[in-house]
Amino acid sequence: MRGSTRTVRAEGALRTITVDQESPERLRRVLEQALVFAGAAFAAVYTCAADGEVLQMVESVGAPGSLYGVRDSYPASGHSPAAQALRRGQPVWLGTKELHERAQSRRIPAYDFSLAALPVDDGGGCLLAVSERPGGFDPEDRACLQLIADAAFIPAPPSGPEPAPDGGELPPDAFSLAMDTGRVQAGEQILELFGLAPGEFDGRVETLLSLTVPEDLPALMSVVEADHMSIGDRELEFRVLQPAGPPRWLRLRGRLLSGGEGRPARLVGSVADASTLRSDVTDVARVQRLAAALATAVTVRDVGKAVVAALRRPLRADRIALAELESDRLVVTVLDPPEPEAWPELWRSEWRTEWPDAPVRAMPTLAAALREGRAQIWPAGSPLEPALAEVGPGGLAMLPLPAGNRMAGACLIGWDTPHDFDPDERALLTAAAGLAGQALMRARAFDAEHELVGMLQRQLLPRRLPRLPGAVAVARYLPSTAGLELGGDWYDVIPLPDNHVALVIGDVQGHSAGAATLMGQMRTALRAYAIEGHPPDVVVSHANRLLMDMETDLFATCCYVDVDMEEGSAWCVRAGHLPPVLRHPDGGTDIAEAEGGPPLGVVRQAVFPMSPLRLQRGTLIALTTDGLVESHEADIDQGMRSLADQLSAANPAHLGPIADALLGNAPRSDDIALLIMRYDGMALRPRRESWTVWRVPQAVGHARRFTRRTLRSWGVTENLDAALLVVSELVTNALVHTDGRVRLDITLVNDRLRLAVADASPRTPVKPTSIGWEATGGRGILLVEALSASWGTVPVSGGKQVWAELVLEDGAPAR
């Protein structure tokens, strides 16, 4: 019964529209009914050219046809659905599977759709329609499309005068643009709207474009560039800058005319003040604008903003809300206006986070409308529950947002003063609901997958940065919004012995799961090589050889900076990556002149030179990936200079706001990793001395005498005998059980004395579980454990270090 009612409603709407056969808007309004009654996302009418060899599009509505690979023209003798329907005189219905198999589909979008082609009633053209609904057009949809095809009479081209070509007289509000040269002839009224006197205009279209708001330029360029302009009428609103006050809205109506006989095509039309014509905007134009906005909306928030922009001002509504339906709750994603005071008390009581979470069970009228799946309109005074009545006391429209066989959400539109709903508004609301529901489902899938990708990416990066001696560091990672692939950018901060810190940032080629996996492997490898105690060039060289041995087609870039927190010096190694940017305490900035090597994984025997950096107290060092400094508008050099300028103007006392500001206006076409450290210097510098233990008979005695002299020079007198005994045992173990070089390191920080012996063996000393009276060895480690507060071993380059710490009762102060 519902389907037959829909067909009857379609017949009534078409009968009303087709009464005026001379109306220039008739064909467009007929096509709009395909969006309203047949659930189409796109509809167009084609007619045969004068030579009968080409089918040309004369009108279209809904989403851009390029989303579905639809062309502006097809060969009349070809195998396109439009040509086949016209030749056979019968409809052609193609589902998703058939469309994927047809060679004519130049581009298949990421979501599925179905296509229908029906000959129009006069036999001289064809109706083409696209549906994104699962299963395509159902029987009632097909019946409605047949009605629309029967009503889509194609008028003959107008025989009246057109705007004159260059050199002729034009009406005051008309223009004529030559598509090959960009020369434009404009009437005096148009020049006045642009703020130009007739004598000031040079006839170049670029002059007019320069006076428009930059954000509107892409839409205008799609009209004035021949490659992007379709045959037929087009309508566009844009803004022009004013000497004072806000920009002025203008409306362009144009038609692209074929030049013929070797003459260039021309765009002719008119431009008028949009504020005086806004009430005359057709519902079809509004649906087209909404469809175009939803076609580029990728997130749920984007969908909500597009719906608000398309409906609130044209309908003069006082408030509008778009919500996702999750189980039995409506989770509101966009409110306009956003202030809580503008919404019902129940909604405010359910306010949980940034947006309210309204229970459907508290609004039975809304719940019933959602179950029925049809747009509902309640005029002023309708008996509604308070949660809805307060949204629109002067009138309320509720749009269920269907997507296939389920409900994606709802859109509420409210008026404070009594509002009359005419048939055109009802048709607009119905068409908008269908488009928004499909877009909302796509956006929900995008948001879910993007969140999963972001979570996986964050798991591969450090959860938190370590506390650093004499420095503060912050890091940021910003995933790309251009796609759902995992990125390969990473950063790391690695504490090293002797108050050294390694700052690492890198980027693996590509955006894929393989790139993210390789990123995690490279970060782990660099951290492992650094902790082993290798110098910076050796760390990067080892990582390069590891990547070469992994036999992957990907490569990686990396910047590794080893900072000595005690001395304020650093060594930088670059492997095909951007250099660090230094901000000095006086506000001056430098892009470090650090010599670089090739990317990792390209050349096995590559050389990675080390470049020195000098850090004063208060110096900022910033490392970033190319996503922050490279874009379509600026190359890397310009981006690096811009980064240096922004650091120079920043307040170095607060690193978090600096990082947020740098990423605030960054392009999102690529992943971005950013690492900033402020070097403050160490308030207490440890005292250090080292001794190379030679393998001679008196080696242990020499080590004891060196330790005694060093501690006395530092003023250490307490626990001196215990320290000498620990040194004896550690040095003896190294000489007896290992080969190669042995080094003794002594460090004093406040009241803690650290004694460490490094050797060339990776084997860790083992503490015996039991020792008999007759045993001649094995007591050394037990003595070290008994005399020290703590002890242990750490791997170092080519071996290990065994250390022990003693707490001094009267330790000498560190420098």
Q: How would you describe this structure to a colleague?
A:
The protein is built from 23 helices and 33 strands. With 815 residues, the chain is α+β, with helices and mostly antiparallel strands. The strands form six sheets. A six-stranded antiparallel β-sheet has the order 3-2-1-6-5-4, with helices on both faces. A six-stranded antiparallel β-sheet has the order 14-13-12-17-16-15. The chain starts with a helix and ends in an 8-residue tail after the last strand. Mean pLDDT is 79; it is low at 103-110, 157-163, 226-232 and 277-281.
Task: Work out the strand percent.
Answer: 25-35%
N- and C-termini, Cα separation: 92 Å
Could you tell me the number of beta strands? Answer: 33
Assign the structural class, choosing from mainly alpha, mainly beta, alpha/beta, alpha+beta, or little secondary structure: alpha+beta
Q: What is the subunit arrangement here?
A: single chain
Give start-end ranges of low-pLDDT stretches.
Answer: 103-110, 157-163, 226-232, 277-281
Work out the helicity level: 25-40%
Number of helices: 23
Mean pLDDT rating: 79
How many strands, which pairing sense, and closed or not: the largest β-sheet? Answer: 6 strands, antiparallel
Sequence of strands across the biggest β-sheet: 3-2-1-6-5-4
Calculate Rg over CA atoms. Answer: 37 Å
Shape: elongated
Domain PAC: 234-286
Protein name: SpoIIE family protein phosphatase
Pfam families: GAF_2 (PF13185), HATPase_c_2 (PF13581), PAS_3 (PF08447), SpoIIE (PF07228)
Keywords: Hydrolase
